[in-house]
């Protein structure tokens, strides 16, 4: 059996079925994509699983992918995300993308923005109620 067949067998063993996205990509890419999914979706990485899934959910919501949103919502809950955390994540996702839209639509110059004094910003960000909050 080759890499493709071995990967499909391992996917089915791990997940109970072969996900459609693995059927939709070229066979020679399946083993690489599966290895990344195993490591970063199911493995132990530097970012704990709950936070990885919350990040994935925020990205999925931002790019408006219903498949990814569904997956990461279920995975976040499975890894201990609370309804309050999910609600805050939904707000923060909208908040960040909303301000991004305002900045882009207003043609705020990035170089000028980067050169603004940061002393006040960094002092504010270091306040315990901001930087020491946990998710």
In short:
The chain has 135 residues and is mainly alpha-helical. 76% of the residues lie in helices and 0% in strands.
Can you walk me through this structure?
The protein contains nine helices and no strands. With 135 residues, the chain is an all-alpha fold. It has a domain at 1-43. Helix 1 (3-15) packs parallel to helix 3 (27-42). The termini are far apart. The relative contact order is 0.07. Mean pLDDT is 88; it is low at 130-135.
Count of beta strands: 0
Classify the beta-strand content into a percent band: under 5%
**N- and C-termini, Cα separation:** 45 Å
Structural class computed from helices and strand pairing: mainly alpha
Query: What's the Cα radius of gyration?
Result: 20 Å
| Global morphology | elongated
Low-confidence stretches: 130-135
